[in-house]
Amino acid sequence: MLRYLRPLLARLLLPVGRFLARLGVTPSMVTLLGALGTVASALVFYPQGELFTGSAVITAFVLFDMLDGAVARASDSASKWGAFLDSTLDRLSDAAILSGLVVWFLGGGRDPVLGYLALFCLVSGFGVSYIKARAEGLGANCDVGIAERSERLVIILVAVGLGGLGVPYVLEAGLGVLALLSAITVVQRLIETRNRLTRPRRPAGDPETA
């Protein structure tokens, strides 16, 4: 859903990307710093129960990580390796966020229900990403789903941040919604991939394919 905002966001970030490119910053530097900051923040703050502080710091690094594309466009240095590195580190960042929550809920937070809910979100989130990657590796486009990475990040960071401020029930609701939407997205992508991979191919010379 948030994909429709990407062209606008790209235009807004381009001046910042040009500034960083003039300083000699590369897209990979931005990607690495954003990912390392996210992972470190999630695994330091969340296991200690610092939910609001952790969410605020993670959000800052996530926003910084979004600049890698702007730097790549500004310096005309976009590459397949850069896209691969960005995608890989995004998966690790997402896993760190939910892993930090699992550690807190099953440890000092003493809330096993939320702990297992966060664990389900972790597993299903990997499923969402893997299905798309595997489908595209087999030649089937699978760019569908009600909750892509952007939506999932917004939900979890907002819910955890507000929960850390003491807003009642928002953390439980956020994790519940995230778990539901992730599960639905997994099913959507499985169905889409099956349809594309099992669709009969039209014979050569078919008027509809000519």
From TrEMBL:
<feature type="transmembrane region" description="Helical">
    <location>
        <begin position="113"/>
        <end position="131"/>
    </location>
</feature>
<dbReference type="Pfam" id="PF01066">
    <property type="entry name" value="CDP-OH_P_transf"/>
</dbReference>
<feature type="binding site">
    <location>
        <position position="65"/>
    </location>
    <ligand>
        <name>Mg(2+) 1</name>
    </ligand>
</feature>
<comment type="function">
    <text>Catalyzes the conjugation of the 1'-hydroxyl group of D-myo-inositol-3-phosphate (also named L-myo-inositol-1-phosphate) with a lipid tail of cytidine diphosphate diacylglycerol (CDP-DAG), forming phosphatidylinositol phosphate (PIP) and CMP. PIP is a precursor of phosphatidylinositol (PI) which is an essential lipid required for cell wall formation.</text>
</comment>
<keyword id="KW-0472">Membrane</keyword>
<dbReference type="GO" id="GO:0000287">
    <property type="term" value="F:magnesium ion binding"/>
</dbReference>
<dbReference type="InterPro" id="IPR044268">
    <property type="entry name" value="PIP_synthase_PgsA1"/>
</dbReference>
<comment type="similarity">
    <text>Belongs to the CDP-alcohol phosphatidyltransferase class-I family.</text>
</comment>
<dbReference type="InterPro" id="IPR043130">
    <property type="entry name" value="CDP-OH_PTrfase_TM_dom"/>
</dbReference>
<dbReference type="InterPro" id="IPR000462">
    <property type="entry name" value="CDP-OH_P_trans"/>
</dbReference>
<dbReference type="GO" id="GO:0008654">
    <property type="term" value="P:phospholipid biosynthetic process"/>
</dbReference>
<feature type="binding site">
    <location>
        <position position="69"/>
    </location>
    <ligand>
        <name>a CDP-1,2-diacyl-sn-glycerol</name>
    </ligand>
</feature>
<keyword id="KW-0444">Lipid biosynthesis</keyword>
<feature type="binding site">
    <location>
        <position position="68"/>
    </location>
    <ligand>
        <name>Mg(2+) 1</name>
    </ligand>
</feature>
<comment type="subunit">
    <text>Homodimer.</text>
</comment>
<feature type="binding site">
    <location>
        <position position="86"/>
    </location>
    <ligand>
        <name>Mg(2+) 2</name>
    </ligand>
</feature>
<keyword id="KW-1003">Cell membrane</keyword>
<feature type="transmembrane region" description="Helical">
    <location>
        <begin position="175"/>
        <end position="191"/>
    </location>
</feature>
<dbReference type="GO" id="GO:0016780">
    <property type="term" value="F:phosphotransferase activity, for other substituted phosphate groups"/>
</dbReference>
<keyword id="KW-1133">Transmembrane helix</keyword>
<keyword id="KW-0443">Lipid metabolism</keyword>
<feature type="binding site">
    <location>
        <position position="86"/>
    </location>
    <ligand>
        <name>Mg(2+) 1</name>
    </ligand>
</feature>
<keyword id="KW-0460">Magnesium</keyword>
<keyword id="KW-0808">Transferase</keyword>
<feature type="binding site">
    <location>
        <position position="65"/>
    </location>
    <ligand>
        <name>Mg(2+) 2</name>
    </ligand>
</feature>
<feature type="active site" description="Proton acceptor">
    <location>
        <position position="90"/>
    </location>
</feature>
<feature type="binding site">
    <location>
        <position position="73"/>
    </location>
    <ligand>
        <name>a CDP-1,2-diacyl-sn-glycerol</name>
    </ligand>
</feature>
<dbReference type="GO" id="GO:0005886">
    <property type="term" value="C:plasma membrane"/>
</dbReference>
<comment type="pathway">
    <text>Phospholipid metabolism; phosphatidylinositol phosphate biosynthesis.</text>
</comment>
<keyword id="KW-1208">Phospholipid metabolism</keyword>
<feature type="binding site">
    <location>
        <position position="90"/>
    </location>
    <ligand>
        <name>Mg(2+) 2</name>
    </ligand>
</feature>
<feature type="binding site">
    <location>
        <position position="79"/>
    </location>
    <ligand>
        <name>a CDP-1,2-diacyl-sn-glycerol</name>
    </ligand>
</feature>
<keyword id="KW-0479">Metal-binding</keyword>
<protein>
    <recommendedName>
        <fullName>Phosphatidylinositol phosphate synthase</fullName>
        <ecNumber>2.7.8.-</ecNumber>
    </recommendedName>
</protein>
<feature type="transmembrane region" description="Helical">
    <location>
        <begin position="152"/>
        <end position="169"/>
    </location>
</feature>
<dbReference type="InterPro" id="IPR048254">
    <property type="entry name" value="CDP_ALCOHOL_P_TRANSF_CS"/>
</dbReference>
<comment type="pathway">
    <text>Lipid metabolism.</text>
</comment>
<feature type="transmembrane region" description="Helical">
    <location>
        <begin position="51"/>
        <end position="71"/>
    </location>
</feature>
<feature type="transmembrane region" description="Helical">
    <location>
        <begin position="20"/>
        <end position="45"/>
    </location>
</feature>
<keyword id="KW-0594">Phospholipid biosynthesis</keyword>
<keyword id="KW-0812">Transmembrane</keyword>
